[in-house]
Fold this protein.
Amino acid sequence: MKKAILFMTISTFSFTLMNAFVKYLNHFPTFEIVFFRSIGSLVLASSYIFVKGIPILGHNRKLMLLRSVVGLTAMSLFFMSLKYLSVGTAVSLRYIAPIFATLFAVLILKERLRAVQWLLFIIAFCGVLVIKGFDSTINTTGLLLALMASVFSGMVYVILRRIGKGDHPMVVVNYFMFTGTVIAGLLSIDSFEMPKGNDWFFLLSLGVFGFFGQIFMTKAFQTAKTTVVAPLKYIEVIFTISLGVFWFGDVYTIWSLLGISMIILALSANVLIGKK
Protein backbone atom coordinates (compact mmCIF):
# COMPACT_ATOMS: atom_id res chain seq x y z
CA MET A 1 0.00 0.00 0.00
CA LYS A 2 2.72 2.45 1.01
CA LYS A 3 4.81 1.46 -2.02
CA ALA A 4 1.85 2.01 -4.33
CA ILE A 5 1.29 5.50 -2.92
CA LEU A 6 5.00 6.28 -3.26
CA PHE A 7 5.13 4.98 -6.85
CA MET A 8 2.02 6.90 -7.85
CA THR A 9 3.29 10.08 -6.21
CA ILE A 10 6.56 9.82 -8.16
CA SER A 11 4.58 9.14 -11.34
CA THR A 12 2.24 12.10 -10.96
CA PHE A 13 5.11 14.42 -10.06
CA SER A 14 7.04 13.26 -13.14
CA PHE A 15 4.06 13.99 -15.38
CA THR A 16 3.61 17.34 -13.62
CA LEU A 17 7.16 18.37 -14.42
CA MET A 18 6.78 17.20 -18.02
CA ASN A 19 3.60 19.27 -18.50
CA ALA A 20 5.17 22.28 -16.82
CA PHE A 21 8.20 22.03 -19.11
CA VAL A 22 5.90 21.86 -22.14
CA LYS A 23 4.20 25.03 -20.91
CA TYR A 24 7.58 26.70 -20.42
CA LEU A 25 8.59 25.71 -23.96
CA ASN A 26 5.42 27.02 -25.63
CA HIS A 27 7.50 29.44 -27.70
CA PHE A 28 8.64 26.39 -29.70
CA PRO A 29 6.44 24.88 -32.45
CA THR A 30 4.15 22.17 -31.05
CA PHE A 31 5.44 19.36 -33.26
CA GLU A 32 9.04 20.13 -32.28
CA ILE A 33 8.04 19.69 -28.64
CA VAL A 34 6.22 16.45 -29.51
CA PHE A 35 9.36 15.26 -31.33
CA PHE A 36 11.62 15.78 -28.31
CA ARG A 37 9.00 14.28 -25.98
CA SER A 38 8.83 11.19 -28.19
CA ILE A 39 12.48 10.61 -29.00
CA GLY A 40 13.56 10.78 -25.36
CA SER A 41 11.09 8.10 -24.31
CA LEU A 42 11.85 6.09 -27.47
CA VAL A 43 15.51 5.76 -26.51
CA LEU A 44 14.68 4.70 -22.95
CA ALA A 45 11.86 2.33 -23.93
CA SER A 46 13.90 0.69 -26.71
CA SER A 47 16.85 0.22 -24.35
CA TYR A 48 14.57 -1.45 -21.79
CA ILE A 49 13.10 -3.75 -24.43
CA PHE A 50 16.52 -4.83 -25.73
CA VAL A 51 17.94 -5.38 -22.23
CA LYS A 52 14.93 -7.51 -21.22
CA GLY A 53 14.94 -9.41 -24.52
CA ILE A 54 11.31 -8.50 -25.30
CA PRO A 55 10.20 -8.95 -28.96
CA ILE A 56 10.20 -5.36 -30.18
CA LEU A 57 7.66 -5.77 -33.02
CA GLY A 58 4.96 -7.36 -30.87
CA HIS A 59 1.85 -9.14 -32.17
CA ASN A 60 -1.07 -6.70 -32.56
CA ARG A 61 0.87 -4.45 -34.91
CA LYS A 62 -2.05 -2.82 -36.71
CA LEU A 63 -3.82 -1.99 -33.46
CA MET A 64 -0.61 -0.66 -31.91
CA LEU A 65 -0.02 1.56 -34.95
CA LEU A 66 -3.60 2.81 -34.70
CA ARG A 67 -3.14 3.48 -30.98
CA SER A 68 0.08 5.36 -31.80
CA VAL A 69 -1.53 7.66 -34.39
CA VAL A 70 -4.56 8.37 -32.20
CA GLY A 71 -2.34 8.90 -29.15
CA LEU A 72 -0.06 11.22 -31.10
CA THR A 73 -3.08 13.28 -32.12
CA ALA A 74 -4.24 13.49 -28.50
CA MET A 75 -0.79 14.52 -27.26
CA SER A 76 -0.35 17.15 -29.97
CA LEU A 77 -3.75 18.70 -29.27
CA PHE A 78 -3.04 18.75 -25.54
CA PHE A 79 0.35 20.42 -26.04
CA MET A 80 -1.35 22.99 -28.30
CA SER A 81 -3.91 23.73 -25.58
CA LEU A 82 -1.10 24.63 -23.18
CA LYS A 83 -0.34 27.65 -25.35
CA TYR A 84 -3.76 29.08 -24.41
CA LEU A 85 -4.63 27.66 -20.98
CA SER A 86 -3.03 27.54 -17.57
CA VAL A 87 -1.32 24.20 -17.14
CA GLY A 88 -3.62 23.15 -14.27
CA THR A 89 -6.79 23.86 -16.24
CA ALA A 90 -5.51 22.01 -19.31
CA VAL A 91 -4.56 18.95 -17.27
CA SER A 92 -7.95 18.96 -15.52
CA LEU A 93 -9.83 19.13 -18.83
CA ARG A 94 -7.73 16.29 -20.21
CA TYR A 95 -8.96 14.09 -17.38
CA ILE A 96 -12.49 13.98 -18.76
CA ALA A 97 -11.11 11.47 -21.29
CA PRO A 98 -12.71 8.57 -19.32
CA ILE A 99 -16.12 10.01 -20.22
CA PHE A 100 -15.40 9.68 -23.92
CA ALA A 101 -13.68 6.32 -23.38
CA THR A 102 -16.83 5.03 -21.71
CA LEU A 103 -19.05 6.31 -24.52
CA PHE A 104 -16.83 4.59 -27.09
CA ALA A 105 -16.78 1.40 -25.00
CA VAL A 106 -20.58 1.37 -24.79
CA LEU A 107 -20.98 1.98 -28.52
CA ILE A 108 -18.12 -0.18 -29.83
CA LEU A 109 -17.41 -2.80 -27.18
CA LYS A 110 -21.05 -3.02 -26.01
CA GLU A 111 -20.04 -2.54 -22.39
CA ARG A 112 -22.66 -1.59 -19.82
CA LEU A 113 -22.61 1.31 -17.42
CA ARG A 114 -24.44 1.79 -14.13
CA ALA A 115 -26.92 4.64 -13.79
CA VAL A 116 -24.85 6.21 -11.00
CA GLN A 117 -21.81 6.25 -13.30
CA TRP A 118 -23.78 8.18 -15.93
CA LEU A 119 -24.70 10.66 -13.19
CA LEU A 120 -21.05 11.08 -12.17
CA PHE A 121 -20.03 11.65 -15.79
CA ILE A 122 -22.72 14.31 -16.12
CA ILE A 123 -21.38 16.01 -12.97
CA ALA A 124 -17.84 15.90 -14.37
CA PHE A 125 -18.93 17.39 -17.68
CA CYS A 126 -20.90 20.06 -15.82
CA GLY A 127 -17.56 20.93 -14.23
CA VAL A 128 -16.30 21.78 -17.72
CA LEU A 129 -19.35 23.97 -18.28
CA VAL A 130 -18.74 25.74 -14.97
CA ILE A 131 -15.11 26.43 -15.93
CA LYS A 132 -16.06 27.93 -19.28
CA GLY A 133 -19.46 29.37 -18.49
CA PHE A 134 -18.54 31.28 -15.37
CA ASP A 135 -14.82 31.97 -15.85
CA SER A 136 -14.42 34.62 -18.55
CA THR A 137 -10.63 34.23 -18.47
CA ILE A 138 -10.75 30.77 -20.06
CA ASN A 139 -9.64 30.86 -23.69
CA THR A 140 -12.18 29.18 -26.00
CA THR A 141 -9.54 27.90 -28.44
CA GLY A 142 -7.58 26.31 -25.61
CA LEU A 143 -10.73 24.78 -24.16
CA LEU A 144 -11.71 23.22 -27.50
CA LEU A 145 -8.19 21.86 -28.06
CA ALA A 146 -8.15 20.28 -24.59
CA LEU A 147 -11.59 18.74 -25.13
CA MET A 148 -10.54 17.35 -28.53
CA ALA A 149 -7.42 15.91 -26.89
CA SER A 150 -9.70 14.20 -24.35
CA VAL A 151 -11.82 12.69 -27.12
CA PHE A 152 -8.77 11.15 -28.79
CA SER A 153 -7.43 10.01 -25.41
CA GLY A 154 -10.74 8.26 -24.86
CA MET A 155 -10.24 6.46 -28.18
CA VAL A 156 -6.77 5.38 -27.00
CA TYR A 157 -8.25 3.72 -23.90
CA VAL A 158 -10.65 1.68 -26.02
CA ILE A 159 -7.91 0.62 -28.44
CA LEU A 160 -5.72 -0.42 -25.52
CA ARG A 161 -8.61 -2.53 -24.26
CA ARG A 162 -8.75 -4.26 -27.65
CA ILE A 163 -4.99 -4.86 -27.60
CA GLY A 164 -5.36 -6.42 -24.17
CA LYS A 165 -2.45 -8.31 -22.66
CA GLY A 166 -1.25 -9.77 -25.94
CA ASP A 167 1.71 -7.38 -26.06
CA HIS A 168 4.11 -6.10 -23.41
CA PRO A 169 3.13 -2.58 -22.23
CA MET A 170 6.61 -1.29 -23.05
CA VAL A 171 6.24 -2.49 -26.65
CA VAL A 172 2.95 -0.58 -26.94
CA VAL A 173 4.64 2.54 -25.54
CA ASN A 174 7.59 2.04 -27.90
CA TYR A 175 5.30 1.96 -30.95
CA PHE A 176 3.73 5.20 -29.75
CA MET A 177 7.07 6.93 -29.20
CA PHE A 178 8.51 5.69 -32.52
CA THR A 179 5.46 6.99 -34.39
CA GLY A 180 5.65 10.30 -32.55
CA THR A 181 9.35 10.67 -33.31
CA VAL A 182 8.92 10.01 -37.04
CA ILE A 183 5.71 11.95 -37.71
CA ALA A 184 6.44 14.91 -35.42
CA GLY A 185 10.01 15.00 -36.71
CA LEU A 186 8.82 15.29 -40.31
CA LEU A 187 6.15 17.87 -39.45
CA SER A 188 8.61 20.04 -37.55
CA ILE A 189 11.27 20.26 -40.28
CA ASP A 190 10.00 23.47 -41.88
CA SER A 191 9.38 25.29 -38.59
CA PHE A 192 12.22 23.80 -36.53
CA GLU A 193 13.84 26.26 -34.12
CA MET A 194 17.31 25.44 -32.85
CA PRO A 195 17.22 25.26 -29.03
CA LYS A 196 19.58 27.47 -27.07
CA GLY A 197 20.99 27.28 -23.56
CA ASN A 198 18.57 25.87 -20.99
CA ASP A 199 16.05 24.97 -23.71
CA TRP A 200 18.11 21.85 -24.46
CA PHE A 201 17.71 20.67 -20.86
CA PHE A 202 13.95 21.20 -20.82
CA LEU A 203 13.38 19.62 -24.24
CA LEU A 204 15.51 16.55 -23.52
CA SER A 205 13.88 16.18 -20.09
CA LEU A 206 10.40 15.78 -21.58
CA GLY A 207 10.98 12.19 -22.68
CA VAL A 208 12.75 11.28 -19.43
CA PHE A 209 9.98 12.52 -17.14
CA GLY A 210 7.30 11.09 -19.44
CA PHE A 211 9.02 7.70 -19.41
CA PHE A 212 9.47 7.54 -15.64
CA GLY A 213 5.93 8.78 -15.11
CA GLN A 214 4.71 5.81 -17.15
CA ILE A 215 7.03 3.31 -15.44
CA PHE A 216 6.10 4.28 -11.88
CA MET A 217 2.40 4.43 -12.74
CA THR A 218 2.65 0.85 -14.02
CA LYS A 219 4.49 -0.21 -10.87
CA ALA A 220 1.80 1.37 -8.71
CA PHE A 221 -0.99 -0.53 -10.48
CA GLN A 222 1.02 -3.75 -10.14
CA THR A 223 1.51 -3.20 -6.40
CA ALA A 224 -2.03 -2.40 -5.18
CA LYS A 225 -5.66 -2.60 -6.23
CA THR A 226 -6.90 -0.32 -8.98
CA THR A 227 -9.52 1.18 -6.64
CA VAL A 228 -6.70 2.36 -4.39
CA VAL A 229 -4.26 3.53 -7.04
CA ALA A 230 -6.43 5.07 -9.78
CA PRO A 231 -7.81 8.00 -7.72
CA LEU A 232 -4.24 8.90 -6.74
CA LYS A 233 -3.64 9.79 -10.38
CA TYR A 234 -5.60 13.00 -9.80
CA ILE A 235 -2.89 14.21 -7.42
CA GLU A 236 -1.28 15.38 -10.65
CA VAL A 237 -3.88 18.15 -10.86
CA ILE A 238 -2.97 19.42 -7.39
CA PHE A 239 0.75 19.30 -8.19
CA THR A 240 0.20 21.01 -11.54
CA ILE A 241 -1.97 23.82 -10.19
CA SER A 242 0.53 24.48 -7.39
CA LEU A 243 3.48 24.51 -9.78
CA GLY A 244 1.55 26.73 -12.21
CA VAL A 245 0.82 29.29 -9.51
CA PHE A 246 4.42 29.47 -8.25
CA TRP A 247 6.25 29.13 -11.59
CA PHE A 248 3.97 30.76 -14.16
CA GLY A 249 1.96 33.01 -11.88
CA ASP A 250 -1.30 31.32 -12.89
CA VAL A 251 -4.43 32.74 -11.28
CA TYR A 252 -7.55 30.61 -10.73
CA THR A 253 -10.98 32.03 -10.08
CA ILE A 254 -13.35 30.38 -7.65
CA TRP A 255 -15.35 29.11 -10.64
CA SER A 256 -12.30 27.45 -12.17
CA LEU A 257 -11.47 25.72 -8.89
CA LEU A 258 -15.09 24.64 -8.47
CA GLY A 259 -15.22 23.21 -11.99
CA ILE A 260 -11.91 21.40 -11.55
CA SER A 261 -13.09 19.96 -8.23
CA MET A 262 -16.31 18.69 -9.84
CA ILE A 263 -14.32 16.93 -12.57
CA ILE A 264 -11.80 15.30 -10.24
CA LEU A 265 -14.23 14.23 -7.50
CA ALA A 266 -16.81 12.83 -9.93
CA LEU A 267 -14.25 10.83 -11.92
CA SER A 268 -12.51 9.58 -8.77
CA ALA A 269 -15.88 8.36 -7.46
CA ASN A 270 -16.53 6.67 -10.80
CA VAL A 271 -13.27 4.72 -10.50
CA LEU A 272 -14.27 3.45 -7.07
CA ILE A 273 -17.82 2.53 -8.12
CA GLY A 274 -16.79 1.01 -11.45
CA LYS A 275 -14.49 -1.51 -9.76
CA LYS A 276 -17.05 -2.80 -7.24
Notes: DSSP finds twelve helices and no strands in the chain. Residues 226 and 275 are 8 Å apart (CA to CA).
